[in-house]
Design goal:
By secondary structure, the protein is an all-alpha fold. It has ten helices and no strands. Helix content is about 65%, strand content about 0%. Helix 3 runs antiparallel to helix 4 and helix 4 packs across helix 6.
């Protein structure tokens, strides 16, 4: 089964539950598939969305609102342009407009938009007291704890997405991003995923940062 098949199955389950399946729901799904298939994407694709949905099924049994989490996952990278700095806000706006049009509950739409903006990962404290948001943020960073070969493939895919940035600028910027994670007291906010992923994530980040430093003049 392809990533698109899994995304379609998730989307239609959500819209059927809401009672909005039909041509309007199909049009939004088509928009999602088209967005995640943009040619400049190498990591932020439908494969990433499928991976997060699968991880939610594996680790989200205690979630208070799985529907909000699934919707946030589906829309959180719908706008992804590496040259801009408001992708999360733009993705949240798209989600809010489309879900409102499909008559999802107002409170649910607001929660989904809030969660999407939080995937900027610049204010993890926002998740204090919200276990669902903490879980979403952890799942979105799961790739940091991947097996070394998979992590390297991820890092290479991100570099291709920033192919318009000269090497020296990219290396310096990427090192700042990696250092930002490494200096956190904790990368993962939920205790179960911290126990699983914190150590391998730090090892991957440190290895990539050291490799980038070796090629700097």
């Amino acid at each position: 089964m392809s990533a698109q098949d899994d995304v379609e199955r998730c989307w239609y389950a959500l819209t059927l539950h809401q009672g909005c399946a039909g041509s309007a729901a199909a049009a939004v799904l088509e928009e999602l598939v088209e967005a995640y298939g943009e040619p400049h994407r190498h990591y932020h694709t439908l494969d990433h969305i499928r991976a997060l949905l699968a991880l939610l099924e594996l680790h989200g049994h205690g979630a208070a609102d799985p529907r909000a989490l699934r919707l946030a996952i589906l829309f959180h990278d719908v706008v992804y342009d590496p040259s801009r700095h408001d992708n999360e806000e733009a993705s949240a706006a798209v989600a809010a407009e489309r879900l409102t049009r499909l008559r999802f509950p107002e409170a649910l739409v607001a929660r989904v938009a809030l969660y999407i903006v939080a995937t900027r990962h610049d204010r993890p404290g926002e998740a204090v007291g919200d276990g669902d948001l903490a879980l979403l943020l952890d799942l979105d960073l799961s790739i940091l704890a991947a097996a070394p070969g998979d992590y390297q493939a991820y890092a290479s895919a991100v570099r291709r997405e920033y192919g318009f940035v000269p090497d020296d600028l990219y290396r310096a910027g990427r090192r700042r991003v990696l250092a930002g994670f490494l200096t956190r007291g904790r990368i993962y906010l939920t205790e179960p995923l911290r126990a699983l992923w914190e150590e391998p994530a730090r090892a991957n980040l440190a290895t990539e940062r050291a490799a980038l430093a070796e090629v700097l003049p």
